[in-house]
Records
---
Amino acid sequence: MRILPVLGTFSLSAALLVAPSPALAGGSAPALGPTATGYGGAVSTVDPTATAVGLDVLRRGGNAVDAAVAAAATLGVTEPFSAGIGGGGFFVYYDARKRSVQTIDGRETGPATMRETHFIDPADGQPYDFAEARVSGLSVGAPGTLATWESATRKWGTRSLASLLQPAARVADRGFPVDATFRQQIADNAAAFGQFDSTSSLYLPGGAPPAVGSTQRNPDLADTYRLIARQGTDVLYRGAVARDIVRTVQDPPVSETPVGTWAYPIRPGTLTLSDLARYRVNHPAPTRSDFRNLTVYGMSTPSSGGVAVSEALNILETAKLSKADVAKALHYYLEASALSFADRNRYVGAYTPQPVLKRLVSDSWAQQRACQISPTAALTKPVPPGDLNATGCTPAAVGGPTEQGQSTTNLTVADRWGNIVEYTFTIEQTGGNAMVVPGRGFLLNNELTDFNFTNTQAPAADPNLPGPGKRPRSSMSPTIVLQDGKPFLALGSPGGATIITTVLQILLNRVVLGQSLPEAMAAPRASQRNTAGIQAEPAFRTTYGPALIARGHSFAADVPELGAATAIEFTRNGGFIASAEPVRRGGGAAGVVHPAR
Ligand code: GLU
């Protein structure tokens, strides 16, 4: 998020957890760059303050889970438009002692009263415009982030959640420097934020986004974190904070003196106190697939990330790909992405039966899908989803459109014992539903807009329509890769449905094209989600466009950037290569406990 000079040996005040830290006091941010190599543990996030907090927990003997939760709580302060306790996410954990991968599904959950027509305007029978649905109470699911932190620390951590919230509370109190990304995210949301005094008083001081370099404080959020520390997470699911969430959803705190105008009515939602009280995290088994000598673990439903990444990797494995022919490898990457998106759209939602998921990640299914790919001529997009009952290449009916989000944040942590956390969490759009819960300092999610508003797969069934107490399908793809049974790579990214292709492309760059991890992260990206034109960063199109167009691919309009990934690679001698974005979203912050000299 903030670009700052890279430093060799980074040291944040060890007193961070117990006493004011000069490094974080009013307006200065610790300096950390996009790559760090060394020993003793590693942290990669989009933000130097969050990375510093995570490193400090590791230095003081905490494990990867402790550090991840402390860093995540800090991101709730410094990246409030991407993530926080008003949202949800997916937490993937590698336990070094047990040599097993476990997950937490902390996805937001729709109200018990939600029906398939949730986003249909009763006045005219038409679906709401996305923006109207987003900035409303209708889009808010019961948040899962705090329950995720509690579950992770209880099951696998060594510190209390209460203690892990303290550094973030101090950052919220003291403030942090506003950078260009933070300011821009507010500017992009000014019309929506301006409708709610609780949001505009925090993020539109004097009616405009704060100046770059000014200090952003959030004392209400500091108080909320401390209240949770004192009373436990129940305060957000059953207590005073729960009541404030429900009031905000059911009676949106629309300003009598808004800043700017909003084109839509701001509709109330139906989330209730019992929906919050009923919220539970789940612990689904991770998805698992093999690619060459690697075992790839990902997030299962309600995320489509693990299934789609696995299917695409399996398809890639059917071709002989290597760095000797980059254009061929990218051609297969784009074809494999399109095919797996067609299947994801048709089959994957919160309630997809296990046998279907198993089939989609199987090698035999990959063969059936891959046999359509020609090495020289691109398939016409959209490609139809595969027919689960077929035994050959026969496809079924035409696929539906793909959605795309823009927000979310990702972090990767490893500790000296070899435990790993890969965690992606979100409030959906940048700025969530635009409503800061009055007096509590955090934005609510608009995650329920990840449901399809109408059937995209007709005449077939759409697996991602709203339903009572249902979780919307996600694309979040926190991924942990083992090589010969030992940790090799952990990675994840934000970016809505492009998350799947970003994770896939980084794996392709690293494993097939033989790039170093920092090269694989920096390389220009493209995303083919089963649409006519490939969405690509300008550098991808100019570098690889001619060779791909010659194979029959076409490009949609360029997008400035795709994703904001974080990753850690595990070296053979027990070291870490922590990697964050060098440029995208203003650049991320990677750090290690003991830097290599
Ligand atoms: N809500 C999206 C998902 O769960 C993530 C949003 C984003 O990364 O932009 O897939």
Note: The two ends are 26 Å apart (CA to CA).
---
Amino acid sequence: MKLTIGHLYPDMLNLYGDHGNIRCMEKRLAWRGIQAETKQFLAGEKIDFSRLDVVLLGGGADREQELVCRYLKKQVQEFRDYVEDGGVVLAVCGGYQLLGNYYKTERTTIEGLGILDIDTECGKERLTGNIVLRSPLFVNPIVGFENHGGRTFIGNYPPLGTVVWGHGNCDSSGEEGILYKNVIGTYLHGPLLPKNPEVCDYLLEAALKRKYGGVQKLQRLTDELEHEANRYIVNLQNRRISKCLIL
Ligand code: GLN
């Protein structure tokens, strides 16, 4: 078995180690004896979505997002078809925002790809810090780091999780990220997947199922270091809460 991972615009969308998500997927596949090939697509290069099993769109600054959106618009129908066909996508922060209708910044409105019917508007302050979520899909909390000016309004889509600690989609909804078919959109950097191996395997299993059919259950790994990293963030936030209560 083999999965092909498309890393879109690594030169422009790569904040806070988002490319680590690729290394994590490659490693977790290799540990199960499954081949992984990563194809990088730089600005202006044609993306053949029909040959991809997983797509990663990382986060970026407003300027880069605008450029990336311009390139992707030329292939938006292929990208939409891939998503509707159950293609796996992990879109982080700026990448998440640009799947939506628009991102209104302080100076302009960046028209998004409109693959998801969601809107993002820049708020007064940036939403920054560690973040902890709970999702019914996963046993362990999802942890990460967020730093975004945009507030994303997801309407009736299910979120990736509910916020235990941090800001999430728009600070007030108590929700973070989005789930649509096999797309996960999220504000979580860090990178996301190494500290959240369950999320990584969820995406890989979805990609394997789409490609090979049947129920694809990956062999479990011990993930001691991964769980330790996850717990570190959760405990860090718990200590902060109890410190505030004591003061
Ligand atoms: N430029 C976007 C924002 O500030 C996304 C930032 C990011 O990807 N971290 O909201």
Note: The chain has seven helices and twelve strands.
---
Amino acid sequence: MQLFNSREELRAWRRQQKGTLALVPTMGNLHEGHLKLVEIAQQHADQVVVSIFVNPMQFGTNEDLDSYPRTLDADCQALAERGVNAVFAPQVSDVYPRGLDAQTSIEVPHISDILCGASRPGHFRGVATVVAKLFNMVQPDVAIFGQKDYQQLQIIRLMTEDLSFPVEIIGMSTERASDGLALSSRNGYLSTSERRLAPVLYQVLQSIAHAIQHDNIDPEQALAEARIALQESGFRMDYLELKRQDDLQPATADDEQLVVLVAAYLGSTRLIDNLPFSRNN
Ligand code: PAF
């Protein structure tokens, strides 16, 4: 497996490659969910590049940029064992040579400042910008993203379409622990009692989808009851909302393809999850 720390090295290698190439963008600290993305990538292309870059542009001032776990050696070992062809782990100065303030940025309108974007201003501008840069640097045919970050996935789909990137975006369904908790690097921050409580988040999403599909219940009522249930269990709510899948605008009675999305805190750990479903099953 090749390890590239600069875009020049990566480009020189990329120019010599034949066949199709899949990119799995990550911020490192890899868990089974990331390795599943690699597996899917290998099914869709001849070669797989994994990028590992803790992107400062998507962190807010009070967020965990400095303490975000950086585990490059262990990550590379796991990726080499999985037969990944190359890892691209650039320096911040290589990705943002003119500094963050001077960086041209990409903002996907209407979808970037709602849900997670409302409580993390600028976050999705940082994500869209770095993913566009990675597409230009790696030049993949296919890129794989987890559906756990549903809003991120839809923003990247829209950006790819709007900017005509010749990249196929594949969303991989969320990997879960046996008790239903979505796999995430941030699960490691949970205390033992918080970890025991965390799967309630997914149970609530399932019961909302079930109530809308089978009990003909008013979605707003189902959401209001679920917010109370989560608060009573010990979660501090950020949002719990029902949206239509494509662009995450409010779901109307005519929308068939829906997604219920949640963000809530357990202690100081912010957990997110979502469940896409069809209104009529
Ligand atoms: O999902 C992530 O890990 C990041 O947001 C991504 C897509 C790698 C961009 O930095």
Note: The chain has two domains: 2-172, 185-278.
---
Amino acid sequence: MRLGIISALHEEQQGLVEAMEGPYKLTHGMREYFVGRLWEIDAVCVLSRIGKVAAALTTATLVEKFGVTHILFTGVAGAGDASVRVGDIVVAESLVQHDMDASPLFPRYEVPLTGLTHFLSDHHMALQLADAAHRFLEDDFALAVDPGERAVFALSGPRLHRGLIASADQFVSDKDRLDALNGALPGLLAVEMEGAAVAQACFELGIPFGVIRTISDNANEHAATDFMRFVKSVAARYAFHIVRQFCLGWQKAGVTQASRESAGT
Ligand code: SAH
């Protein structure tokens, strides 16, 4: 197994690259790929840059040039529903491109020639991600995020959600737009700009993937306020510890699997 870890923003990736054992850097297509071991897992870390094309290109390169077998995307997102709050975590079960509209030739949101509007993330990876997020909230959150920053962003008892994420080449910062999306896409939890592109690329290439997002804003008129401060002091800490917990959990599951196989069960 080789895990590709894609981050959208530099601040989220930095800690992971620093934690890598024996990393080496390869530059390709205007991106830097860091190859090494992360908590005993063979991994490649890369910044996708922002938007669907950037994310799809990065995904394809990870698979075709770096031979990754699984992909994990970590980033921030706007809340897609009133029940989701800043500081909460969303693990994607399915993803949709909310700017896809080839109607009347194809139904709204359907990606032409795939027959799909919603792309499912890998069930096993989503479970492992949810476990990792739970462990982060229980074991790491209190120490990992500075109390001053917790107060600034009113983070008290952040929660984990699992469900639908919608992506587009659009930063949503308008309450009416968000309400319309929420009405059109039942179960919507978060809006962002890359996840559904990774999902389509992985679907077409047959690669299991997972997407996890920390909620940075309410996708309304205040969305851009303190965005970078949140990314640096909160989301970067979430991303680091969740990926760490994910790798530790994955390693443990792999060891259990291997010992079962050697025991012939
Ligand atoms: N101000 C940043 C740009 C961030 S773009 C800069 O100068 O670098 C927003 C990034 O966060 C994208 O990667 C997107 O996936 C995610 N995101 C967070 N909130 C979002 C929202 N309300 N709408 C869409 N994407 C959002």
Note: DSSP finds seven helices and ten strands in the chain.
